[in-house]
Write a structure and sequence with these properties.
The structure is a homodimer. Chain A contains twelve helices and 15 strands. Chain A is of the alpha+beta class. Chain A has an eight-stranded mixed beta sheet with strand order 1-15-14-11-13-9-12-10. The two termini of chain A are 28 Å apart.
Chain lengths: 372, 372
């Protein structure tokens, strides 16, 4: 695939504008929290993008309003009487199919929650697992999924310590759904927050974009494409520890799952009020994933990852951060993909290869339903 | 309903035998952990009884084997570096219908997890909530359920601090499923465990049996019965605190949800290796619940509760425990329902009104699917 072809694949998201035009239009592009416009739940509400944020704000934040939910993170930081900080996170997994190249719902269920805790700066320790299973689901398949979870838990150095099992009639859970929650402790002194992000900070990504989403789409067999893409599903807690040891001033971490790097960068921009300028040429995508994305008409910047970390690091620690990530098996392809700027306000822009700049909004709609 | 009618309703479970015969047959009745015999998941695997225990043992315990899971509780007790003990529990809720007299899936989702933590001796503090929602589910209904959760959380003095939302296609979640997890701290010195149970200890129940299960069955409208039974769904953490203050030697607590008092007493018998002898005349059941159970051919001893506590207390603290429970709005009907004996081994028996004794096994099958 040529660079031109790649470029076309990526330009579907927003108009191409020149940087000075962007600056003039800051007010126009200033992000507001999206609003809920629908009367019924749609697939887009589960996609992790704009509609998901709107649903969470309008329904759940409205009902449960508290400081932790208002931080709009994938987990809560909870103060224990001893002065320790506990991280607590949950995710449901409804991936279809249950098994795909590189993993299964079992791996995802562990990795998803481990990774949410890890990017909060926590050391994931204990996992709960709740199963909603269809009547008629083969016990052997359930054993295999439990074995995948056990394998993933071992690799991530966490324990599945409690659980629940519910059974629903055939057809009412598409096989099975798994919900995990996890807790871990945040070592004293670690503080990862949008408040610490400064103009000039660098944005790092630990590897290629979109492998998980593309792998699951391909595994469904609907696309009529030969070839295999492997999901990147993996526990990033080891990678995060390596990064935070090498670059202790690291400001902010996130795992770009549903909604991809594009949506996570928008969350960063909204949380900080600053601009995130990404360099298109440096955004890592494998040729296979790029090919699938072109066929689907999706920018890989919005496609889910399940074993990647997006990090905002201090300029002076960039080299150390990059070196530490590249030394880790999960960060070999780590790159600087952009930087933080105060020349844009709460906006994500991509500098294209030919000098233009385009705005990257949050993911709208759900081009890839049920990929996690 | 006459006493004779009641008696008949309760005698479906086991053969009527004389106490001396029971003693002779200890070996025959000695409980073993049930074994998984099926190739596919059945509704019984979700009923909280014998099949559920077999599935958990054969699949999940086998895969994740660790000390916490082997305790076979509804939650884990986790040691923090500070010396504090954290309680951690999870439950999925798939109740049908979503709303029933006395509550909704929203109330259940909070109460279920709060109560699991409370009977571990913990003070529930933080809740996670993960939603699997069908495409097309009305936003207004979702708001109402979130409002129920918020109301329940406020009443239980817990906060919903983190969550997740997934959307599946219409029909693939029967409206919606909610999975909550919860964490709380166990005050130092509290130790509730089967190891502390002694012959002569009293078994207390905080109120009538089976209200929740009967309410949900009636709400489905399949039975053609007029009249309304209200679910007892409620957070028992306040009741447990009152009990543990009045009776600090309390040995063991459980909330008799799926599988009811009968199943929970079997868990107690298996955990302690001792006998649990219940007094039929003292088992509290409302006439309405008894009527529904007769129609369904189910012993109310197996019907789910969602706001009750079963407690094993020291003989000398029985009066104090009973008084404290009865002073609490959720424990007004608290009674002593039986006692612990070493004349039986890992067995639950009921002394009938006319001097016989029958064995109460764990719930077998699933007469009331999807009641939580």
């Amino acid at each position: 695939m040529s660079v031109d072809e790649k470029r076309r694949g990526r330009e579907r998201t927003g108009p191409v504008v020149r940087e000075e035009q962007v600056l003039e239009k800051i007010e126009a592009f200033r992000r507001r929290r999206p609003r809920l416009l629908e009367d019924v739940v749609t697939m887009a509400h589960g996609a992790g993008g704009k509609a998901s944020a709107a649903l969470v704000d309008a329904v759940f934040l409205e009902a449960f309003r508290n400081k932790e939910l208002e931080r709009r993170c994938d987990g809560a930081v909870l103060p224990l009487p001893s002065g320790e900080s506990l991280a607590f996170s949950t995710d449901s997994f409804v991936v279809h199919p249950l098994r795909f190249p590189g993993g299964s719902i079992g791996h995802l269920a562990i990795h998803g929650t481990v990774n949410d805790l890890a990017v909060m700066g926590a050391r994931p320790a204990w996992i709960s697992a709740a199963f909603v299973i269809e009547e008629g689901f083969p016990i052997e398949q359930l054993r295999a999924i439990a074995a995948d979870m056990a394998e993933a838990a071992k690799a991530a150095d966490v324990e599945v310590v409690t659980g629940d099992t519910k059974v629903v009639s055939a057809g009412a859970a598409d096989g099975l759904y798994i919900t995990t929650a996890g807790v871990g402790l945040i070592p004293p002194g670690r503080e990862l927050s949008g408040d610490r992000v400064r103009p000039g900070d660098r944005v790092l990504l630990s590897g290629t974009m979109g492998d998980h989403g593309a792998a699951v789409m391909l595994a469904r067999g609907d696309l009529g494409i030969e070839g295999e893409i492997k999901s990147d599903t993996a526990p990033v807690n080891g990678l995060v520890e390596a990064l935070l040891t090498a670059a202790p001033s690291t400001r902010w971490l996130r795992d770009p799952t549903r909604g991809g790097v594009g949506t996570v960068c928008n969350e960063l921009a909204m949380e900080t009020g600053l601009g995130v300028v990404l360099d298109e040429a440096s955004l890592p995508v494998s040729p296979q994933v790029n090919g699938v994305c072109e066929l689907l008409g999706i920018d890989p910047i919005y496609v889910a990852n399940e074993g990647k970390v997006l990090a905002v690091v201090a300029p002076e620690e960039t080299d150390a951060a990059l070196a530490a990530m590249r030394e880790h098996p999960l960060g070999r392809d780590a790159v600087v993909i952009g930087e933080i700027t105060d020349r844009l306000s709460a906006t994500v822009a991509v500098r294209t290869a030919f000098g233009g700049t385009r705005i990257v909004d949050m993911l709208v709609g759900d081009p890839l339903p049920r990929i996690c």
